[in-house]
Design brief:
The N and C termini lie far apart (about 85 Å). The chain has 11 helices and 5 strands; from the N terminus they run E-H-H-H-E-E-H-H-H-H-H-H-E-E-H-H. A hairpin with a 7-residue loop joins strand 2 (about 75-80) and strand 3 (about 90-95). It is of the alpha+beta class and about 280 residues long. Helix 1 (about 25-35) crosses helix 3 (about 60-70) and helix 5 (about 135-140) crosses helix 7 (about 155-170). It has helices at about 25-35, 45-55, 60-70, 100-110, 135-140, 145, 155-170, 175-185, 195-205, 245, 260-275; strands at about 5-10, 75-80, 90-95, 220-225, 230. Among the domains are: about 5-110, Arc Repressor Mutant, subunit A (Orthogonal Bundle); about 135-205, no CATH class. Strands 1-3-2-4-5 form a 5-stranded mixed β-sheet.
Length: about 280
């Protein structure tokens, strides 16, 4: 077993084990993948340990096999900060007997999500015959007309402005303070459009977010190249390998549109001559 917090971590939502889990892999990779699959979470799975656990392959063969398992979508190496105060990091290898795409691994490692987010259904229009109880935001908007008749809103107005009012309440504003803020200093000549006026005030007078400053930061994870362990951005990894380890050609150097050295020297000489002869 690895040190606490290190070692193998099983990816979620894997298919049940079967005899054909690694049939798509070469014999060596399939053998080592089956060995890793049966290791418990927290087990060490570095190349030295894998070479000791079985008698068939040495460290170099295990290292090559791990790289190929990475490109086949079965594992990713991650460094992860587990302490918000002293910035301690652990190094884990996530393994999945079910091969995953680069997009799946990136989404899981960086956000913890395992399914493709779906587009939410468009909100249904509220009707005048409401069958569900009014939300606190809707009730606060409806109560504005009782506090001042110049801000009397219709049911449709309250439904349209409800998300904005809900943001006020989510930031700690009580219904009483909400009503006071929206009805204060109304124009004496009256309000031509109560809905438009209320919307403008909801946007302009939105209170600050009172999230406590001492909240612990979110967990930080950094993907590593499976082969060289270099920290990389997700889009820079191809099958869990950086560009150099994957064998992809380096990006071409940017084309320079500047002058040649000879032209630069000639241009500098003309400038010096002009400065010398100027009055």
């Amino acid at each position: 077993m690895a040190s606490p917090g290190y070692g193998k971590q099983s990816a979620p939502e894997q298919h049940p084990r079967s005899a054909n889990d690694f049939a798509h892999l070469p014999a060596r990779e399939a053998y080592l993948a089956s060995l890793i699959d049966h290791l418990p979470d927290g087990a060490a799975m570095d190349v030295k340990t894998l070479a000791v656990l079985q008698p068939h392959y040495g460290q170099m063969a295990c290292r090559t096999a791990l790289n190929r398992l990475s490109t086949a979508g079965h594992l990713r190496r991650v460094r992860e900060r587990i302490s918000a105060k002293d910035c301690r990091w652990v190094f884990r290898t996530y393994f999945s007997r079910t091969p995953r795409s680069d997009a799946w691994w990136t989404r899981f490692i960086m956000t913890g999500e395992t399914s493709t987010p779906t587009t939410p259904d468009p909100p249904q229009e509220r009707t005048l015959n409401r069958t569900s109880p009014a939300s606190a935001a809707y009730a606060a908007l409806a109560g504005l007309g009782l506090a001042d008749a110049r801000l009397a809103l219709s049911a449709a107005d309250c439904a349209a402005l409800e998300p904005l009012a809900a943001e006020w309440l989510a930031r700690g504003t009580t219904p009483a303070l909400f009503t006071a803020a929206l009805t204060a200093n109304l124009p004496p000549e009256g309000v031509h459009s109560p809905a438009a006026f209320t919307r403008r005030r909801l946007l302009d007078k939105l209170p600050p977010d009172r999230t406590p400053l001492d909240d612990p930061p979110r967990q930080v994870r950094v993907l590593e190249c499976t082969a060289c362990r270099t920290p990389c951005r997700p889009h820079a990894l191809l099958g869990g390998l950086c560009r150099a380890c994957h064998g992809a050609p380096p990006p071409p150097p940017p084309r320079s549109g500047g002058l040649s050295p000879t032209a630069v020297r000639a241009h500098a000489a003309r400038i010096r001559q002009a400065m010398a002869t100027s009055p």
